[in-house]
Specification:
This protein is α/β, with parallel strands linked by helices. It has one domain: Rossmann fold (3-Layer(aba) Sandwich). Helix content is 28%, strand content 18%. The strands form three sheets. It has a seven-stranded parallel β-sheet, sandwiched between helices. Strands 6-11 form a two-stranded parallel sheet. Strands 8-9 form a two-stranded parallel sheet. Helix 4 packs parallel to helix 5. It starts with a strand and ends in a 9-residue tail after the last helix.
Length: 257
């Protein structure tokens, strides 16, 4: 098992992942651009270090030494934080040693707008920052990249219905939802590491797809005792997340309801 792991991105998904990997016996290092977060990460035993990761500038010099010693790296940086996201990802990847295993957390938003079922072979938006970053990583033959295209995240402290509370006549009510629970994503990543699965692409999406209208109106009432109203119109894609189930028997254990 590759035991030395470097994480880029330690937020809603990355922080619990880092703690879980530590409990599983991995040596976890966390890259952060925030000096005020160093102490907290250190107290959790996550071996943080400061790196120049911000919207305006990225310096590869700040990570080169760390990258020389890692077995695996997990990149979960949001494109919105960077002026030139794909170039930043490329610069990070170029720092890794030969045969480093890189897990890149992407998104199902890369797929073309359609009302069909999409899988890992479906057409994507060629100019999407995440697609350009994926292409950079896959073209770097000195590293081994696994790409995870995540559906919308939800979990115990996060639910997408909150963005709709107190709204009425919300558009696209008949579009299907594509969601996945945070805990299932953590399980996917830990299994990919333990099974050393490289050079693969997976959608990570719960296998049920109620309409936005049914799902969010029910969630608003059940979770927050609020009434919201979607219009009965629109449509959208259904993302098939079954490849990873068939690949190594993964099970989506955490319901989205």
């Amino acid at each position: 098992m590759n035991k030395n792991i470097l994480l880029f991105g330690c937020g809603y998904l990355g922080f619990p992942l880092a703690k879980k990997l530590k409990t599983l016996g991995y040596f976890v290092q966390v890259a952060t651009h925030s000096p005020e977060k160093l102490k907290g990460f250190e107290e959790d035993g996550l071996n943080p270090f400061l790196v120049s990761l911000d919207f305006d500038n990225f310096s590869a010099d700040s990570i080169k030494e760390k990258c020389k010693t890692v077995d695996s790296a997990i990149l979960m940086l949001p494109p919105s934080n960077f002026k030139n996201y794909a170039a930043t990802i490329k610069s990070i990847a170029d720092c890794f040693q030969k045969k480093t295993h890189v897990i890149f957390v992407s998104s199902i938003s890369v797929y073309e707008d359609t009302s069909a079922i999409v899988d890992e072979n479906s057409p994507c938006k060629e100019n999407h920052d995440l697609i350009i970053a994926e292409q950079y990583l896959c073209s770097n033959k000195s590293i081994n990249t696994t790409i995870l295209r995540l559906a919308g995240l939800l979990g115990s402290s996060r639910h997408p219905v909150l963005s709709f509370i107190n709204k009425e006549k919300i558009a696209n009510g008949l579009a299907p939802v594509n969601l996945v629970h945070q805990q299932d994503v953590l399980s996917v990543i830990t299994k990919i590491l333990s099974k050393n699965i490289r050079n693969e692409l997976f959608n990570i999406c719960y296998p049920e797809h109620p309409t936005r209208k049914d799902f969010y109106e029910s969630a608003a009432d059940k979770l927050f005792s609020k009434k919201i109203k979607f219009l009965s119109e629109g449509g959208g894609k259904i993302v098939n997340g079954q490849k990873i189930v068939e690949f190594f028997g993964f099970t989506y254990k955490n319901t989205i309801y």
